[in-house]
Structure formats: structure tokens, C-alpha cells
């Protein structure tokens, strides 16, 4: 009999965010300005668990909901009780606040241990189920880190399950398709990416939920060693609004205008590529290589930089050249000269910072390579481009850690892409990606050489592997970065550290984060954001073999079925027309996308290829090989058409390098309208035939 522990989280309702929800000074969210709701994916995970209990054939099995949060988080427990949970546990304590993912996963794992011992008393036959990620954090790191703490298998990005031969098989999203797997042993952690069958509360159950006592624990009850701000391995340096989209976001009201814009956009030499360009920020120079030893123009925040500029100006005015000989009178003079700009403590910190010249971390800059069937994932090459830049700034080497079987031939390609050293861990047991075996191989290699920075692609595989490896090695990890820069944070005693910038709160803010209390700084980076370097086959590099002992016990998952797209698709075409779930059915997709592709091809005299969103592929409108996005193909055509596509981040990542994006959607508030160049509000059934006619007659 399986039991279930469901992790649920209360989050701010980010769909209701307005500008006044943020503190104008700090840029942080004022929680009281927004309603709190259950994290949508956790609600789906609860419904998914209820389904598991139903098909698992044992109505006696228990569902325990666990949440960690402030006392008001009891609302999500009432929600859980009123839908499916039998017992609920609230872990609440001020000491647990301000935690990053490591300091969240650790107490949750300890609370799970206590639930199993004190409440379920069920041996090993249980599942821990949770949403893939929360909308406020968006990291997807906590579940794999819980699995790592508890030494359990983790099956992430699950979209369905089947109970056959007395065990559960889980269908999960992977790059290029989907896969059905089972945990080789229980317990196991499952993260739900999508389950669209909501649970509704009955009146009777709601009454019962409101009367039921819930269990409340503090940090003393669970005795977790890594909690709160103190236990965290990352800290936020600054929060700021996201830059304005580089896209035009212009609404078009009629198909005639749209047809003209299509022709004009195709023929123009427009290089409107909406991707973030990190090369805009000046390349970092180590303090010892700066012409002026007081040059602090590489500080983490603008304010810090400005403070240093004022300080250095005052030092020069006062004729002070030797920091170590500054006395109290000098300090008073500087403070008087600096006026209101900074106070004594800030001055002391800055003066101490000026004495520092040695980088805070040592070692190479690494990328963990992702590959399958002998092909390296394109995001790996992009990261090598970034690692090269960071390594050059830090005057060190760029390395690649790669695990697998018969992978040595790939080394040449990795070196040609910009790497100096390739660290290879080969084992037959690494033939296909298994999170537990891979994290052992990669963590072992990292802890042998200790690079100062480790980058992973924010693909389903990377977002699974990185949290496990970083947790295992006691290092901080920042998810889904869109900016990676070396900077100083001298006032806090850091030189040459990695500043990791990422969107947070559903993309409503950007946060810059640094690693602390770690031997290595780790980050996953969004595919399609960093730039691949031109291939240079003349580059020379070194291959270093890393040995590790793996046994069958290191393999945590049994792969039951893998479905990958097959067939030929020319995504190098100049024009791509994608249909989404809004196409409604396969016939519509065939008819409308087909006719639109034909007329565009004739009008523009070019090849036009068909694409699709993941949802359209899952609905069976078109084969998987046509999928565009994070787990499909990343494309960069001149013209991209999104027909009936909402604009989910996983889709938009794949079209970031497109010159012009045109969307047709019936929802006037479709998120894609904020990420495209031209859009028209209307159904594809109405707009597309008219547009085809317009293109043919114009
Ligand atoms: C790990 C992971 C990886 C993923 N990878 C990818 C990926 O690579 N690619 C990808 O695309 N997704 C991916 N997804 C899924 C992604 O999150 C979204 O669920 C998906 O992109 C939604 O597809 P959609 O826009 O077609 O469907 P929906 O989000 O359902 O949107 C349908 C849109 O159609 C509109 N619409 C409805 N009817 C009409 C009509 N008659 N005419 C016009 N418009 C209409 C609606 O207003 C809506 O905006 C991934 C998810 C996860 C968790």
C-alpha cells in the first residue's frame, strides 16, 4: 500500500501583480498587497496524487499535505483537506524564513522524515509528490534537492501516470519528446508539470476541513541543520524591473495591414533579435590588472560603484595614496568631504574593500555538457561561449565536464566551441541519462577539481541534475539565469564573483544573486540567451579522464518507453508558421497552417516550415519533430508566426532569436502579445483564411 506526502506552497497571486505591489526603494514585492493562493502546480500535484490513490487500488492509503510557511499558510492546508488530504502538517517558524532552495529543501526533507516516522509509520512504500516549481520562485530546485537529501529517486516534469503490474509508470517531459519511467525503488519524489483535472471541494468536505485540527511543527521539532538565511547558499544583491521588451508589441486591426507588414518585415534588413545581449556590459578586469589600483568600476551594483567613485575622488583630493595608513583624522576628512553620500560603517567597508585584490574563488570555469545519442545539446555550446568569456576575465581556463558512455569523440567539438579542458567520465551505466548516476559522476568530478564556476543548461535535464549536484556538494545554485557577469562586491569582501541575474515572480522582476558559503558558484542558464562562439577547429585542448565506480544500485529509474520526434523538418527556413492548442484540432492545423504556409511561400518566394507548441504536439495536431521551444527546437527565422499559442516561457525561449514574431490569438490578454512584434486579436478560423486571401490578392 503506497502512501503519499504532497508538498503544497502558498504563493502571492502573481497574475494580479501591478506596479504598486513593489517597494519603489528596494524593488521587492510587498506581500500584503497581493492575495495569497495555493501554487497552481501544487494544486495539480494534489489532484494527481488523488488520481494515483484511485488507480493504485488502495483507498486506505493516506495523503498527507505538508507546507512550510508563515502561520497564514494554513489556508493551503485547508484547501488540501477539503480536496483530498487526510492529514496536514504546517511547518512554521521565523527561523525558517528568508531561505533559498537549499535551506528550504533541507527542513522539508527533515519534516518528511518525521511524517514517515510519526504519522505514516509505513516503511518505504510512499511517494512524495509536488508541483514542478512555484510561481514565486520558478526554480524547480527544491524537489530534486529533497530527493538528494533523502537519497531518493526523483522523477521530474511528470504529465501522466499509469498503474500496471502493481507499480506506477510516469510519463515525463524530456528534450525532444517524452518518456515513461518507473522508480526502481521506493520511496520516490515526483514533480508534476501538468495535470489538468482539477479537484473540487464538496460542501461536506469543506466543513470537515474547516473543523479539522492540523499538526504544527517548528524548527525545533524537525531538527534540520540547514535553515533560514543562515543556512542559505545564495543571497540576493538587487532586485530591479525587467527591461522593456525589444519587440514592437504592436496591435494590428485588419488583415490588409498585417499582410503588408508581413511582406515589409520579410524584405527588410531588420535585425530585431529580442534576445538579451550580455556583451553590452563591460568585460571584467581583475583588480591587479587594472591601470589604477583604486579603480572600482566593477562593483556589483550601481550604487556601490557610485560610492566608490566618490570615495576615490575624495582620496585623490586629500592626497591619500596608501589605504593602510589612513587614520581617524583622514576618515573624518573623507566623511566630511563625502557629505551625505555614505556613513562611517560604509566608509570602513569600502576602505577594507579597496585593500582586496585577490579573487574570492579559484579554479576553472566549467560547463556541464548535455548530450544524447552522440549529439551535444545546442545549449551546451552557448554556455561554452559564456564560460570562455568568464574564464578570460578571470584569467583561467574554460572546462567542460561530460559524463556518458563512448563520449570521447565529442571532446573535439567541445574544444572547437571554446573549451580548454574536457573532463570525461565514462561508464556503461551512464549510457542514458539517469539523474542519480549522473549526479554522482558529475559531483565526483567537480569535487576532484573544484572549478570556481559551474554552468548547466536550464533544460529539463540540467534543471534536474544541477540541484542534485549542488546540494550534494554544499554549493549555492541559481536557476534559469539570463545574465552572468563577473563583478566585485568589495564592500562585502568579494572580488571576482559571479553575479547571476534571473527573472523572478513570473518574470515581473529581475534579481541579481551571488553565491555564499560555497566552494563553487553554480547556475543554470536559459537556452537561447548566451551566444555560441564561431567553431574554431584549430583550437587545441586537453582531455582528462575521470574515473568513478558505479554499480546497478546507482541507477534509480527504469525507462519503460521513450518517444522522440522523427522525420525531417527544415527549421533553417526563413519563415516558420507554428500552430498551438488554439488550433483546436488536427484538421484545423492541417487546413489552416497548410494553406497559410503555401500562400506565404508563394508570396515571399521562400520555403516555409511548419512548427508547433508542445501542447499542439501533445494534442496530436502534428508530429513531435515540429515542436518549437525549450524541449523542442530553438529556431531563429526571419519571420515566425504563432497561431493560437499563448506564449509560455518554454515556447518563447525557442524563438528568442527570431527577427519578427507575429501572433494571432483570440484572447486580447494573451501573454504572447507582450513578446511579439505584431499581433491581431481574433480566432485563427476567422483571421487565417482572410489573411491567405489578402496575401494572394495583394
Ligand atoms: C519542462 C517543460 C518543457 C516544455 N517545453 C516546451 C516546448 O519546448 N515548447 C512549447 O511550446 N511548450 C513547452 N512546454 C509547455 C508550455 O509550458 C505550454 O504549456 C505550451 O507552450 C502551451 O502551448 P499552447 O500555447 O499551444 O497552448 P495554451 O497555453 O493552451 O494556449 C492556447 C492559446 O490559444 C488561444 N486560442 C484558443 N482558441 C483559439 C482560436 N480559436 N484562435 C486563436 N487563438 C485561440 C488561447 O487564447 C491561448 O492563448 C514545456 C513545459 C514544461 C513544463
List keywords for this structure.
binds flavin-adenine dinucleotide; seven-stranded parallel β-sheet; 698 residues; 24% strand; alpha/beta
Query: Structural class of the secondary elements?
Result: alpha/beta
Helical percentage:
25-40%
Could you list the spans in which at least 5 consecutive residues all have pLDDT below 50?
271-279
Strand order of the largest sheet: 11-5-4-1-6-10-7-8-9-26
Number of helices: 19
Largest sheet: 10 strands, mixed
Explain the overall architecture.
- The structure is a single chain.
- The chain has about 700 residues and is an alpha/beta fold.
- The strands form six sheets. Strands 11-5-4-1-6-10-7-8-9-26 form a ten-stranded mixed sheet, with helices on both faces.
- Strand 4 (about 65-70), helix 2 and strand 5 (about 85-90) form a beta-alpha-beta unit.
- It is globular, with a radius of gyration of 27 Å.
- The termini are far apart.
- The structure holds flavin-adenine dinucleotide.
Amino acid at each position: 500500500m503506497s502512501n503519499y506526502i504532497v508538498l503544497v506552497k502558498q504563493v502571492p497571486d502573481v497574475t494580479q501583480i501591478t506596479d504598486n505591489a513593489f517597494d519603489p526603494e528596494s524593488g521587492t514585492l510587498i506581500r500584503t498587497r497581493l492575495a495569497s493562493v495555493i501554487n497552481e502546480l501544487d494544486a495539480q500535484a494534489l489532484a494527481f496524487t488523488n488520481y494515483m490513490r484511485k488507480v493504485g487500488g488502495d483507498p486506505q492509503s493516506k495523503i498527507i499535505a505538508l507546507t512550510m510557511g508563515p502561520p497564514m499558510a494554513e489556508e493551503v492546508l485547508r484547501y488540501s483537506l477539503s480536496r483530498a488530504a487526510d492529514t496536514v502538517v504546517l511547518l512554521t517558524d521565523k527561523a525558517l524564513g528568508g531561505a533559498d532552495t537549499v535551506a528550504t529543501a533541507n527542513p522539508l526533507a527533515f519534516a518528511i522524515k518525521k511524517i514517515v516516522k510519526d504519522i505514516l509509520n509505513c516503511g518505504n512504500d510512499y511517494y512524495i509528490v509536488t508541483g514542478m516549481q512555484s510561481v514565486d520562485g520558478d526554480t524547480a530546485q527544491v524537489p530534486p534537492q529533497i530527493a538528494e537529501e533523502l537519497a531518493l529517486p526523483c522523477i521530474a516534469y511528470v504529465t501522466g501516470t499509469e498503474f500496471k503490474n502493481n507499480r506506477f509508470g510516469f510519463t515525463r517531459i524530456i528534450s525532444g519528446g517524452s518518456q515513461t519511467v518507473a522508480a526502481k525503488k521506493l520511496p520516490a519524489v515526483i514533480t508534476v508539470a501538468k495535470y489538468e483535472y482539477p479537484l473540487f471541494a464538496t460542501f461536506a468536505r469543506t466543513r470537515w476541513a474547516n473543523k479539522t485540527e492540523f499538526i504544527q511543527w517548528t524548527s525545533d521539532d524537525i531538527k534540520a541543520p540547514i535553515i533560514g538565511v543562515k543556512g542559505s547558499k545564495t543571497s540576493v544583491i538587487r532586485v530591479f524591473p525587467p527591461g522593456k521588451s525589444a519587440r514592437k508589441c504592436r496591435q494590428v486591426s485588419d488583415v490588409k495591414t498585417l499582410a503588408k507588414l508581413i511582406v515589409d518585415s520579410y524584405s527588410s534588413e531588420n535585425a530585431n533579435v529580442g534576445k538579451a545581449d550580455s556583451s553590452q556590459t563591460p568585460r571584467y578586469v581583475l583588480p591587479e590588472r587594472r591601470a589604477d589600483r583604486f579603480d572600482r568600476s566593477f562593483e556589483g551594483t550601481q550604487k556601490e560603484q557610485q560610492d566608490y567613485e566618490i570615495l576615490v575622488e575624495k582620496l585623490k583630493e586629500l592626497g591619500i595614496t596608501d589605504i593602510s595608513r589612513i587614520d581617524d583624522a583622514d576618515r573624518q576628512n573623507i566623511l566630511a568631504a563625502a557629505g551625505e553620500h555614505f556613513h562611517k560603517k560604509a566608509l570602513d567597508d569600502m576602505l577594507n574593500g579597496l585593500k582586496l585584490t585577490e579573487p574570492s574563488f579559484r579554479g576553472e570555469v566549467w560547463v556541464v555538457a548535455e548530450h544524447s545519442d552522440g549529439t551535444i545539446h545546442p545549449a551546451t555550446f552557448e554556455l561554452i561561449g559564456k564560460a570562455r568569456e568568464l574564464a578570460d576575465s578571470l584569467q583561467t581556463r574554460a572546462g567542460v565536464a561530460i559524463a556518458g558512455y563512448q563520449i570521447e569523440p565529442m571532446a573535439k567539438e567541445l574544444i572547437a566551441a571554446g573549451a580548454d579542458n574536457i573532463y570525461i567520465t565514462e561508464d556503461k551505466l551512464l549510457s542514458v541519462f539517469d539523474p542519480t548516476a549522473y549526479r554522482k559522476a558529475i559531483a565526483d568530478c567537480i569535487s576532484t577539481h573544484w572549478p570556481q564556476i559551474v554552468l548547466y543548461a536550464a533544460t529539463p535535464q540540467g534543471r534536474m541534475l544541477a540541484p542534485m549536484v549542488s546540494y550534494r556538494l554544499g554549493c549555492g545554485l541559481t536557476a534559469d539565469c539570463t545574465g552572468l557577469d563577473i563583478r566585485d562586491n568589495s564592500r562585502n569582501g568579494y572580488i571576482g564573483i559571479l553575479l547571476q541575474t534571473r527573472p523572478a515572480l513570473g518574470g515581473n522582476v529581475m534579481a541579481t544573486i551571488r553565491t555564499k558559503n560555497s566552494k563553487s558558484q553554480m547556475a543554470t542558464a536559459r537556452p537561447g540567451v548566451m551566444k555560441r562562439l564561431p567553431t574554431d577547429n584549430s583550437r587545441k585542448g586537453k582531455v582528462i579522464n575521470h574515473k568513478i565506480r558505479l554499480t546497478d544500485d546507482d541507477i534509480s529509474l527504469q525507462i519503460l518507453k521513450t518517444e522522440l520526434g522523427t522525420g525531417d523538418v527544415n527549421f533553417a527556413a526563413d519563415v516558420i508558421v507554428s500552430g498551438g492548442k488554439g488550433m483546436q484540432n488536427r484538421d484545423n492545423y492541417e487546413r489552416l497552417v497548410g494553406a497559410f504556409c503555401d500562400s506565404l511561400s508563394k508570396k515571399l518566394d521562400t520555403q516555409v516550415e511548419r512548427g508547433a507548441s508542445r501542447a499542439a504536439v501533445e494534442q496530436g495536431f502534428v508530429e513531435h519533430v515540429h515542436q518549437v521551444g525549450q524541449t523542442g527546437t530553438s529556431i531563429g527565422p526571419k519571420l515566425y508566426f504563432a497561431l493560437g499559442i499563448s506564449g509560455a516561457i518554454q515556447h518563447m525561449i525557442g524563438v528568442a532569436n527570431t527577427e519578427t514574431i507575429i501572433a494571432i490569438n483570440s484572447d486580447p490578454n494573451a501573454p504572447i502579445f507582450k513578446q511579439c512584434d505584431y499581433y491581431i486579436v481574433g480566432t485563427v478560423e476567422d483571421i487565417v483564411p482572410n489573411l491567405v486571401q489578402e496575401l494572394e490578392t495583394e
